[in-house]
Amino acid sequence: MSVRDHTQKIDLVETMKELWAQMGSLMATIVFMYTIFERFFPPHLREKLQAYTQKLTNHFNPYIQISFPEFSGERLKKSEAYTAIQTYLSANSSQRAKRLKAEVVNDSQTPLVLSMDDNEEITDEFHGIKLWWSANKVSNNPQRYNPFSYYGSSDEKRFYKLTFHKRHRDIVTMSYIKHVLDEGKDIEMRNRQLKLYTNNPSSGWYGYKQSKWSHIVFEHPATFETLAMDRRKKEDILKDLVKFKKGKDYYAKIGKAWKRGYLLYGPPGTGKSTMIAAIANFMNYDVYDLELTAVKDNTELRKLLIETPSKSITVIEDIDCSLDLTGQRKKKKEENEDEEQKDPMRRNEEESSKSSKVTLSGLLNFIDGIWSACGGERIIVFTTNYVEKLDPALIRRGRMDKHIEMSYCCYDAFKVLAKNYLDVESHHLFGAIGGLLEETDMSPADVAENLMPKSVDEDVEICLHKLIKALEEAKEEKARKKAEEEEEARLKEEKVKEESTQMEEKHKGKTGEDVKENGFH
Ligand SMILES: Nc1ncnc2c1ncn2[C@@H]1O[C@H](COP(=O)(O)OP(=O)(O)OP(=O)(O)O)[C@@H](O)[C@H]1O
Ligand SMILES: [Mg+2]
């Protein structure tokens, strides 16, 4: 190697070293500048600077970004869109995102919800279009920025950012966002815990809690599968419910409020309340159990109903008693109770219930009126044991669109109960039971009670025999009652006959005397 070569090599190394040193100092300057920028520039200045840089880059940037803030409006309400997007992304991204956030959500059936963590980004596809979602946060309150705080500001503002190419602008704004929000809301609805609401007496409406409705988690296990009733009737109701659920456009087209009224009627223990629970589980709707006797007047009724949301079932059980159209059940109950033994609280409640001024017309106005059009997708259910005594105005079609009779246990219903309670689908005793059911009037509640094993020793055979015995007794009882009724009717008829002959004879005697007196003899 010549001296010249050697000198050249040293020069190159020197240059490299210099370059490296310069790069090092450049890096150090960037880091330094960034630290200064991060540490000492208050967020509002940083935001301004970012805005200018943004403007500059936007000019060349072919991508569009849309932000969805967590809180919106003047009162900073949690944005429904943000929640829906969060649910959508959680459902679609939990496998794809690398950093996830686990949150415990009270109102959900799956209490631990995984969603993408802050500053995480995932991609989504819609009709072949690629889109990017990122979860972001910024400081919400620059005034409270503390440059020396290790944790930064506590007022953080979260938002989701959607990025896509500008040539897909129309499809994203017109279809994709709607798709995300709809699907997110749908998942929310499916995952949420159903609730059972009951109305509070108006005396507590403006107190500490200020709520008209109290709720508990609704965990009734009834489903249409376990509901014992005629198979075809059940299928018919299911079809009706499905049609209603999918009927948004149809109702809009015919200009009718998106609501449906069901009247469930039948003797006690035939499954009216169970049916309501099955409907709630099937439709995934909350239940608003309206106790009319606790509502003072129509104004209160209005206030209560206004607060029921869409996708809910408003239930008025024993409508005949609540509106005092017949009052039979209440009277019966009242007769049985010893007035003296009632505690004062109870007596007070009953007294106030007697002064309830809710009227039939008030209720009807509401069912038909503006309320039914608020939000749509509402079901209203009335139940009664005495359908024949209800005011026809209350149950006419259009108001109560579907009248469902819950009747005594038939063979189809028994088979469902046998499957529920004993886990059997066929048995040699089924034939005998089917025959007996036709001859008796036993409610599904009574059949279920007989089928239920009372101890570990009671097997299927024993339980079915127990039911047969109960059915035979019921049959005898029915025959005895029928004979008694016939005897009573016969006696009544005889009495009427006797009375009419007596009347006739009396009449004859009287005319005879008249003739004598008048001397026509
Ligand atoms: N059709 C049915 N299918 C399944 N179980 C039923 C049925 N009918 C009654 N049962 C059983 O009987 C119990 C009482 O039934 P439910 O409360 O639904 O009757 P109801 O018709 O509402 O009576 P009431 O008129 O007294 O309010 C239920 O908890 C359920 O276990
Ligand atoms: Mg009931």
TrEMBL record:
Keywords: ATP-binding, Hydrolase, Magnesium, Membrane, Nucleotide-binding, Transmembrane, Transmembrane helix
Transmembrane stretches, start-end: 20-37
EC number(s) stated in the UniProt entry for this protein: 3.6.1.3
Region feature (Disordered): 328-354, 475-521
Pfam families (UniProt xref): AAA, AAA_assoc, AAA_lid_At3g28540
Superkingdom of this protein's organism: Eukaryota
Ranges of compositional bias, category Basic and acidic residues: 342-354
Segments forming domain AAA+ ATPase: 258-410
EC supergroup of this enzyme: hydrolase
Cofactors (names): Mg(2+)
The organism of origin for this protein: Glycine soja
Reactions listed under catalytic activity: ATP + H2O = ADP + phosphate + H(+)
Keyword Calcium on entry: no
Protein's recorded name: AAA-ATPase ASD, mitochondrial
UniProt similarity note: Belongs to the AAA ATPase family. BCS1 subfamily.
One GO term (biological process): response to stress
GO molecular function: ATP binding; ATP hydrolysis activity
